[in-house]
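Predict structure. Chain length: 73.
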Amino acid sequence: MASNKSSGSNQVEVPEARDAMDRFKMEVASELGVDLKPGYNGDITAKEAGSIGGEMVRKMIKRQEEEMAGRSE
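Prediction complete.
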């Protein structure tokens, strides 16, 4: 069994995907009206941070379901 050093963390597994995920996060934050900026965002509320993460997950699930059904956007 392979060891996973980042088990339990929110590390991006594919380093090349980090920029795409950051852009996606900024896009979702903008759609939700959350003032997210590059770098540290310790001034946003837990509710705002959770809404960004939750919406990202909803969008990723929807995209995957569409791909699985053959209806990619």
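Summary: The two ends are 37 Å apart (CA to CA).
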